[in-house]
């Protein structure tokens, strides 16, 4: 069956992140349907135009069995701007084929919904998805409760993040990596690097020579560009402005900084050079697991907690992680619970696919 896919980009332009703001971690999520199914067409790459369809909606309705919508932190609580919710809603109104949601999440620091708000456009989108989807796939229990609380939508189905299920053979390699030992350097990923705990983790990563995998931050990337172009006065990121040695920072960014605009080079780098990944970026850690290397999720908000809990991923609170040296993280890479539940998680995801009329995917073989 031909499956259309919209939502997250699978690769990013050369202007990212200095001129084009994005999160490269979303590529991991956006690539998942293409790993799972043979005949997928992305709205972003334009291949659907070879069919002669004038719009993507026409292509979906004439040529496809389903539309998969890969969504990340679509619903951010306590925001007043309904523009992007209305835009997504309007883009789906003309779709006549089944709509299947991958990875819908609610972004929030707290799990408490009692005082939280969403704009009317977001609530309308929730209701629309509840009406148009056989089941609305959500990342975790907190997002399930948000759909019920704000929109009265109860036909939700918790899948965790679909990206976990996109490369089962590579995920199985994690246990062999842990049992057989792993070579390479630790890799750190941060979210709000000005925050005290994350800033301490960043500085410890620099001093230990761990890799810094950057999915968003333009300040880090601008400094990297300045350093690699040998500019005499590189613009040090403001959250490292008081670092004791600019020369040390220059040497570190020249050798240990990494940013990716495609997923395959990311997986290749991780497989060849990384021992394990840790930090607050969910999909940077997931990229490590999907390349066969372990990761430790540092929990700092409701979204990361709900994903780590449902998927039984090894995790640690940010306050505790901030006290660790990079190589100490290895002691927390306990995957026993994860692999005890991974078969059931794949079965759960396949149930979601079947209810939506999509083919089952390959199960993990340990």
Mean pLDDT rating: 94
Helix content: 40-55%
Strand order of the largest sheet: 11-10-9-12-13-14
Derived structural class = alpha/beta
> How much is the radius of gyration in Å?
21 Å
Count, helices: 15
Detailed description of the structure:
By secondary structure, the protein is an alpha/beta fold. The protein has 2 domains: 173 residues, Rossmann fold, CATH 3.40.50; 168 residues, 3-Layer(aba) Sandwich (Rossmann fold), CATH 3.40.50. Helices cover 42% and strands 14% of the residues. Strand 7, helix 6 and strand 8 form a beta-alpha-beta unit. Helix 4 runs parallel beside helix 5. The longest helix is centred in the last third of the chain and has 20 residues. The radius of gyration is 21 Å and the shape is globular.
Question: Topology of this structure?
Answer:
Layout: E1 3-7, H1 25-30, H2 32-36, E2 40-42, H3 56-63, E3 66-70, E4 75-76, H4 83-93, E5 99-102, E6 106-107, H5 120-132, E7 136-138, H6 141-151, E8 156-158, H7 168-180, E9 185-189, H8 196-208, E10 211-213, H9 218-228, H10 246-256, E11 257-258, H11 263-273, E12 274-279, H12 282-289, E13 295-299, H13 302-311, E14 315-317, H14 318-321, H15 336-355
Parallel strand pairs: 1-2, 1-3, 3-5, 4-6, 7-8, 9-10, 9-12, 10-11, 12-13, 13-14
Helix pairs in contact: 4-5, 9-10
């Amino acid at each position: 069956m031909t499956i259309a896919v919209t939502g997250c980009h699978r690769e990013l332009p050369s202007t990212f992140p200095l001129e084009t703001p994005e999160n490269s971690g979303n590529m991991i999520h956006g690539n998942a349907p293409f790993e799972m199914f043979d005949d997928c067409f992305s709205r972003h790459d334009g291949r659907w135009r070879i069919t002669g369809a004038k719009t993507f909606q026409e292509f979906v309705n004439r040529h496809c069995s389903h539309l998969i919508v890969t969504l990340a932190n679509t619903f951010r609580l306590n925001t007043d701007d309904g523009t992007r919710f209305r835009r997504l809603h309007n883009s789906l109104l003309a779709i006549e084929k089944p709509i299947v949601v991958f990875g819908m999440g609610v972004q929030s620091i707290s799990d408490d919904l009692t005082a939280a708000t969403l704009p009317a456009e977001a609530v309308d989108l929730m209701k629309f998805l509840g009406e148009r989807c056989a089941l609305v796939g959500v990342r975790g229990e907190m997002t399930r409760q948000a759909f019920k609380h704000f929109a009265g939508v109860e036909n939700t189905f918790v899948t965790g993040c679909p990206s976990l299920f996109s490369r089962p053979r590579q995920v199985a390699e994690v246990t062999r990596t842990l049992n057989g030992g792993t070579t390479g350097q630790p890799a750190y990923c941060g979210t709000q690097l000005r925050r005290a705990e994350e800033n301490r983790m960043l500085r410890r990563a620099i001093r230990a020579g761990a890799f810094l995998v950057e999915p968003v931050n333009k300040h880090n990337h601008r400094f990297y560009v300045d350093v690699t172009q040998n500019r005499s006065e590189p613009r040090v990121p403001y959250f490292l402005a008081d670092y004791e040695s600019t020369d040390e920072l220059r040497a570190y960014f020249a050798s240990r900084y990494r940013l990716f605009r495609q997923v395959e080079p990311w997986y290749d780098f991780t497989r060849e050079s990384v021992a394990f990944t840790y930090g607050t970026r969910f999909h940077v850690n997931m990229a490590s697991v999907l390349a066969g290397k372990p990761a430790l999720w540092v929990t700092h908000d409701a979204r990361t907690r709900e994903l780590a809990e449902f998927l039984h991923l090894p995790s640690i609170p940010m306050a505790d992680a901030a006290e660790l040296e990079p190589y100490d993280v290895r002691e927390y890479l306990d995957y026993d619970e994860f692999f005890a539940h991974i078969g059931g998680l794949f079965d759960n995801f396949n149930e979601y696919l079947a209810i939506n009329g999509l083919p089952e995917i390959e199960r993990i073989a340990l």
